[in-house]
Design brief:
Layout lengths: L1 H4 L9 E3 L5 E3 L2 E8 L5 E8 L5 H16 L8 E6 L3 E6 L2 E3 H10 L5 H21 L2 E2 L8 E4 L4 E3 L6 E2 L10 H4 L20 H16 L19 H7 L10 H8 L9 H10 L6 H14 L5 H17 L8 H8 L4 H7 L1 H8 L4 H9 L10 H12 L8 H14 L5 H18 L3 H13 L6 H15 L5 H13 L6 H12 L8 H6 L3 H11 L25 H9 L5 H4 L5 H8 L95 E2 L2 E2 L2 H12 L1 H40 L11
Antiparallel strand pairs: 1-3, 2-3, 3-4, 4-6, 5-6, 7-9, 8-11, 9-10, 12-13
Helix pairs in contact: 4-6, 4-8, 4-9, 10-12, 11-12, 15-17, 17-19, 18-19, 18-20, 19-20, 19-21, 20-21, 21-25, 22-24, 28-29
């Protein structure tokens, strides 16, 4: 029973000391600790009564009492404490001694003047609070009495020798009695010389400034050497260590002098910190301007300050709607300093909440800066919490939001599930490509589809890409047509031989005479012509390897080429050329682009069959109406349709010419009534070559030589070999027939007079 009352109170203490390195701070030993229940990190100052003298024990108890009663943002924060007969435990916020902090900074590149300026500002402000508000004297100011928290802010501690300035008697011994090494920091005058009450603390402040810039002070006479003290601070430093104690300034006046224009404490870092301390009482317009300017200065601010001081203020500002969308840019900049785990805990919940905002400025900034945080988003959050809000941007009335929404799909597509990617997203892309009145958005939709093609379902991909790119090649906007051509080229490995021959090549060939030079330049049929020539040059149709056609929806080896075709082909689809296109450019282009259209420039009806892929009939491009000059169709035109008739011919874009006995052509583009396209009937062309009759094989040989000279020569030799083989077969057949006739004549014998010759 008595053992219960004799229980050690240290075991019931809510904090425990961690077995790590310890630092000596005056009469105290500084340990790292944590709260037993939550694991929250703290610092524990420990004083062992048995190891100290009576004077030191008296100082420790006095400091313990002062820490409980003094509260100020720039004074070390008291959390908890325990006083026993054997020891004193003083629990504070987690801090590091200034000397150790400066040493670590010097090893990693040195502390910047911005960080030191704010630290000195905090120290002088805490000293001014003691002298002017509390009427106390510190009497122990130095690097050993300054501590630095996680945000890099300096805190004043070492309250062992604090006394009243009212002349009250004190039994506390001076610092030099406890530690003789501190005698060099004492002012040169005697205690009763008649100087100002703060003259001793101000002198020690000068010693602190000298040590911050030059290292440990070897002797008092070294204060005359300025060393590395900045020029802006030299005049004010000299006032602090002046020989006349009455001329030494009050800490408040010293702070005011250094904050004047051009002073050492007058910079963006100090100004930002002061604003953050008073942000709760600032006007909304001031907060808006501050967060807008903050992003420009964050690159020069210390990393710890950004993580532990700026970030909490940014999160608070967003939570209470203080600044709106302007907090996003500095928020993402600060997020670069966080680890993956910290980012998930602090930034991601805020981002997910931001996507549900109806503020257009917030939404467009999120879309523009998605690249900075997309790697931290998991697939579950993207599909359930982010994508449902992002898709609203496809139907927004603001073109800028629609455009950024399309671009964001490049980053979201790898994380989307089967339903969102192959059904929901494709439905929105189909509607944008067929109904959006902005040419650049239709163009960007085509480019985005080509880039995310590796992620599409293999069973759906070929039909979607073929129909979408075919649709793009008929767009009134030239850049969209060029994007469609380059989309075919970039995804050529996803099409079968039958698809290339039956749909893609007939779609691309008319674009070789497109009125826009950029479209003509991009209409490069090399990939598809080589594939067809391989089949045509064989004695029988071979089955080419088509492994990518049915490959699963993952990024393939061609992903590295996506960045090339959009930039080189359409010159970065959001460039000034597209953005600053004249209002009537699309209509003018549509009027001239007669290739692949009827004479009125309209796109005719198309048919589609998506029942096999599970799409509704309402999502197809069937019942398509004429497209006006803006490239806008009826509201019912949605889905990736089939641009071809059931018999495989182009839907009314080309007119079949009846085959005559003198012409070898089958399909020739219909000539415009104005004759501007310069197309003629096949019979009007001169099919002779080099002054003689050219065969059809010769004509194809010339074409193949232009496309690929090496393969053309091989094919020409094969054609010649076939011709010689056929000639030999005909000659052998002729000889066989002649031999048979001779045998029949010999079997019948000589003809009789008057008999009729039958053969």
């Amino acid at each position: 029973m008595w053992s219960f009352f004799a229980r050690d109170p240290v075991k019931d203490f809510n904090y425990e000391i961690l077995p790590e390195n310890q630092d000596k701070s005056g009469i105290w030993t500084l340990h790292r600790g944590k709260r037993k229940t939550t694991g929250e990190p703290v610092s524990i100052f420990l004083y062992e009564v048995a190891q100290g003298t009576e004077e030191q024990t008296q100082l420790a108890k006095a400091a313990f009492k002062r820490m409980k009663t003094l509260r100020h943002p720039n004074i070390l924060s008291y959390v908890d404490g325990l006083e026993t007969d054997k020891s004193l435990y003083l629990v504070t916020e987690p801090v590091t001694p200034l000397a150790a902090h400066l040493k670590a900074r010097s090893e990693s590149g040195g502390s910047g003047e911005l960080e030191i300026s704010w630290g000195l500002h905090q120290t002088v402000k805490a000293l001014s609070f003691l002298v002017n508000d509390c009427h106390l004297l510190h009497n122990n100011l130095g690097t050993w009495a300054i501590f630095v928290d996680r945000a890099g802010e300096w805190k004043l501690g070492g309250l062992d020798h604090v006394t009243s300035d009212q002349g009250e008697p004190t039994s506390l011994p001076p610092a030099k009695v406890v530690n003789p090494d501190l005698e060099k920091y004492d002012p040169p005058e005697s205690p009763n010389s008649g100087g100002e009450k703060w003259s001793g603390d101000v002198w020690r402040l000068g010693c602190l400034i000298w040590e911050v810039f030059n290292g440990p002070l070897p002797r008092a006479s070294s204060l005359r050497s300025l060393g590395k003290i900045p020029k802006q601070l030299v005049p004010h430093y000299c006032e602090l260590v002046g020989a006349n104690p009455k001329a030494r300034p009050n800490p408040a006046r010293f702070l005011q002098n250094c904050r004047s224009s051009g002073g050492f404490l007058s910079n963006s870092f100090v100004e930002s910190n002061l604003f953050l301390e008073q942000i709760q009482i600032k006007e909304p317009a001031e907060k808006q301007q501050f967060f807008q300017d903050l992003s420009e200065n964050l690159d020069s601010f210390p990393e710890d300050f950004c993580k532990h001081k700026v970030l909490p203020q940014l999160l608070t500002a967003f939570e209470f709607g203080i600044a709106g969308a302007v907090v996003l840019t500095p928020l993402f900049k600060v997020g670069k300093y966080l680890s993956a785990e910290e980012y998930q805990q602090k930034i991601i919940p805020v981002i997910v909440k931001m996507f549900s905002s109806t503020d257009r400025a917030m939404r467009i900034r999120l879309l523009q800066q998605m690249e900075q945080f997309i790697q931290y988003l998991n697939e579950a959050a993207v599909n359930s919490q982010i994508f449902p809000h992002v898709v609203h941007g496809f139907t927004d009335t603001n073109p800028a939001i629609r455009e950024q929404t399309v671009k964001s799909m490049l980053l979201l597509a790898p994380k989307l599930n089967e339903t969102n990617l192959n059904q929901e997203l494709m439905r929105h892309f189909a509607r944008l490509q067929s109904r959006d009145d902005q040419g650049p958005i239709r163009c960007n939709t085509t480019v985005c589809l080509g880039k995310i093609a590796p992620y599409l379902n293999a069973g759906l991909r070929q039909r979607v890409l073929t129909s979408a790119f075919s649709r793009a090649t008929k767009d009134p906007f030239p850049a969209s047509r060029a994007a469609g051509v380059l989309g075919f080229a970039a995804t050529h490995h996803y099409y079968s031989v039958t698809e290339c021959a039956g749909r893609i090549l007939p779609t691309l060939c008319p674009l070789t005479v497109d009125p826009d030079k950029n479209v003509r330049d991009q209409c490069w049929l090399k990939h598809f012509l080589v594939m067809m020539l391989k089949v045509f040059s064989s004695c029988f149709i071979i089955v080419l390897p088509e492994k990518d056609v049915t490959a699963s929806g993952q990024a393939g080896g061609s992903a590295a080429t996506w960045a090339g075709w959009a930039v080189t082909g359409v010159s970065s689809l959001t460039s000034k050329l597209i953005r600053n296109a004249p209002a009537g450019s699309e209509g003018a282009t549509a009027g001239n682009a007669s290739v692949g259209r009827t004479s009125s420039g309209a796109i005719k009806k198309q048919s589609s069959d998506w029942s096999s892929s599970g799409w509704d009939a309402d999502d197809s491009w069937s019942n398509e109406k004429d497209v006006d000059g803006q490239g806008q169709s009826s509201p019912a035109d949605e889905g990736w349709g089939n641009d071809w008739d059931d018999d495989g011919a182009l839907a009314e874009s080309f007119t079949p010419t009846p085959r005559s006995t003198t012409s070898s052509t089958a399909f020739i583009p219909k000539s415009d009534s104005s004759g501007q396209d310069g197309l003629r009937m096949a019979s009007d062309y001169n099919w002779d070559s080099a002054g003689g009759k050219g065969t059809t094989s010769d004509l194809f040989s010339n074409v193949s030589q232009r496309a690929n000279p090496a393969s053309a020569m091989v094919r020409e030799k094969k054609v010649e070999n076939k011709a010689e083989l056929a000639k030999k077969k005909r000659e052998e057949r002729r000889k066989e027939l002649e031999a048979k006739r001779a045998e029949r004549k010999a079997a019948k014998g000589p003809l009789k007079l008057g008999a009729r010759k039958l053969d």
